[in-house]
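Retro notes, item 3 of 5
We never archived the inputs for the (S)-3-Hydroxyhexanoyl-CoA complex last cycle. Fixing that now. Sequence and ligand:
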Amino acid sequence: MSSPVSYRLEGNIGVIAVNNPPVNALSQPVRQGILDAITRAQGDESAAVLIICEGRTFIAGADITEFGKPFKSPWLPELLAAIEASSKLVVAAIHGTALGGGFETALAAHYRCAVPAAKIGLPEVKLGLLPGAGGTQRTPRLAGVRASLDLITGGVPISAPQGEKLGLIDKIVEGDLQAAALAWISELLANETAIRRSSEQAVPEFDPAIFDEYRSQLLKRARGQVAPGYIVDCIEAAASGSFDEGMAVEREAFTACMESPQSAGMRHIFFAERQAAKVEGLAKDTPKRSVQSVGVIGGGTMGGGIAMCFANAGITVTMIEISDEALQRGLAIVDGNYAGSVKRGKLSEEKARSCRGLISGSTDYAALADVDMVVEAVFEDPGLKKKIFKQLDAICKPGAILATNTSYQDVDVIAAATNRPADVIGTHFFSPAHIMKLLEVVRGEKTADDVLATVMSLAKTIRKVPVVSGVCYGFIGNRMLRPYGKTAQLLLLEGASPQQIDTAMEAWGMAMGPLRVFDLAGLDVGYKARQALSDEKKGDPKTYRVADLLVELGRMGQKSGAGFYAYDDNRKPTPDTAVDKLIETVADDLGVARRKITDEEIVDRLISALVDEGRKILDEGIAQRSSDIDVVYVYGYGFPVSRGGPMFYADQN
Ligand code: 3H9
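Structure as it came back at the time:
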C-alpha cells in the first residue's frame, strides 16, 4: 500500500506532503510517513523542510477512529519531538482547518504560515479530551496563558489572522499556498533566520490568579466535565515548570481523559452526528432540488426562528401571517432576536442587518407562488394544517418542497391534503429555532427521495444537525418525552418533590429537570391535547392528574407565573408549598402510598423510561439507528453529551 505521505525536493526545500482524505487525520501510516520524511530530510541536500497537505484541509487532528484501540508506534508526541528537533528549518503551511493533533504538528514546526481563510484550534475538549501532543505546553509559550486557556478550554477554532495576532501564526500568505510558502522559506533562508523551537520559548508574564479564576468559571460553564479542569492543570504546569515536566503532566491528564466514560460518550456523539446525516437506502448521488427562496407560514416564536435560520444562510424568506398586525408582531420577534444575537456577540451588526434584509412579509399566500420551499409553522391544529397544505398545493410552483414543522401530527395525513404528497416532508425545528441545532426530518410514506436528500443537505447549509424520523405521534424526541413525563408524574405522587426530581436530573447532567421543562413549554399544551382524548386513551390518571389540576388552577407554567413552581418577574423558580399539598391530595385520592425516594431511583426510572421507548422506536423502524436517537436527545433535549445519549448510556451501564 502506498504511503499517504510523500517527500520530494523542490529546489533546495524538502516538501513533506500529506494526502489522507477526507481530512488528513494523523493515522498510523501518516505519522510513520511524516517521521520517515523528516528523518530523510536530515540527511539529504535540502536546506529547509515544508509540511503541507493536499485536499481540502491541513491535518484536522489525530485519527479518532484509532482511539480506544491498541496503540501503534510512532506515538504523536515522539513524532512532533522529531520535527521540532530538526536541524533544518521546518515550516508548516496551513489551509482549511488545522485542528487538534494537526495544529500541534504545526506548533512543532519552527514557523507557520497560513492562508487567510484557514482556521486553527485545539477542539479536543469537545471530545472529552485535551491536546495530548504538546498542545497545552507549546501554545502558552507562543500565545500566553490567557489566550491558551480560552483556546483550549473553549475548543472553538479561530481564524488564521486571529492566530497571527496571538503569535500562533507567523505569516498570512495570499494566492497559491505551496508557492507562497516556498517563497517565504527562501526568504527566511536568505535572511539566515534562526530555528525557533516553541518548546524552548519562555511563557510570557501572567497573573497567577488566572488559574483559579478559570477553575471557578469552568465549574459553571463546563458543569460535570473532567477535561477542562485537567486543561487548566496542564497550562499551569507549562507556566510553572520545564517543557519536559509539563509534557509529563499533559501525558497523565490525557490518559485519564481518554479512559474516562465522558470521552467515550463524546466521541460516540461525534461519529453519531455524522452518521445521522446518512440515510439508509438513499443513493449518494440522489439529485437535489435548488432551494434559494423559502416561505414560512406563521410568524410566532417558531416561525420567526425558522425564518432566521434560512436568512442566516443567505436564503430569502417570505413570512406569511393572517393579518398585518400579526405579521408586524412576527417581524418584531425577528428584529428582537437579531438584536439579541448582536448583543451577545454572536453576529456583527452588519451581518445581522444583511440577514434581516432577506426576510420580508405578506398576508397573501400568492406571495409563495415562486418560492422553492415552504415551511408551515402554525400551531398544532391538524385541521388548519390540512387546509394550509391544500392552499399551498393550489399556489406553489411544481417542484416546490412543502414542509410542515409539526411536532406531533401525522405527516402522511397532511400530505394527503395535496395532490403532490411526494413533495411533502416534516421539518421539526426545536425552540428557539435559530439557536437549537437539532432538526428532525420526518420522512412521509410518499416523500420523494430527492426531497429527502435536498432537506438533509439543506439542514447542513442552515447549520442544523438533521436526524431522519419515520411518521409516528411525536416522532423520535417528543414520543420519548411522553413516558419520561409520565414517570416524573408518578415519582411526584410516590413521594418526590418537583425540586428533588429536577435537582437529581440536573446533577446527573440534564440541562433542565423534567418539571422545569414542562413549566417552560407550558402545561396547557399537554392539557389541551389530553382534553381531546377519551379517558381510555388518556391512560392512567396518576400520570397526568397533578398537571391537569395545576392548569385548572390557572398555573400554566412560566408564562402565567406559576406551574410546578412559583416564578418571579425574572422567571426564577421557587418551590411552592401549594404544589406539594396538591400532590399529596392527589396521591391520597388515587391511593398512591408515599415514601422516601432516592435520587438514584429518580435518575434510573426516568432514563429507563426514555430508553424503553427508544427501543420501541428502533424496533418499529421509526429511527434508522440507535445512535440517531442519541443525537436527537443530545442536540434537542439537553441530554448530557458526556453520557453519549440515552441509548449509548444504556448500552454502557
Ligand atoms: C486529537 O487530535 C488528539 C491529539 O491532541 C492528541 C493525540 C495523541 N479522525 O465533519 P465532516 C471524518 S483529537 C477520523 O463531515 P466537515 C468524519 O467522521 C482530534 N475521522 O466534514 C467524516 O467521516 P464520514 C481533534 C475524522 O468538512 C469525514 O471525516 N480534531 C476526523 O463538515 C468528514 O468529516 C478534531 O476534533 C478525525 N479527526 O468538517 C476535529 N475528523 O464521511 C474533528 C473528521 O465517514 N473534525 N473525520 O462520515 C472536525 O471538526 C470536522 O471533521 C472538520 C471537517 C472541521 C475537520
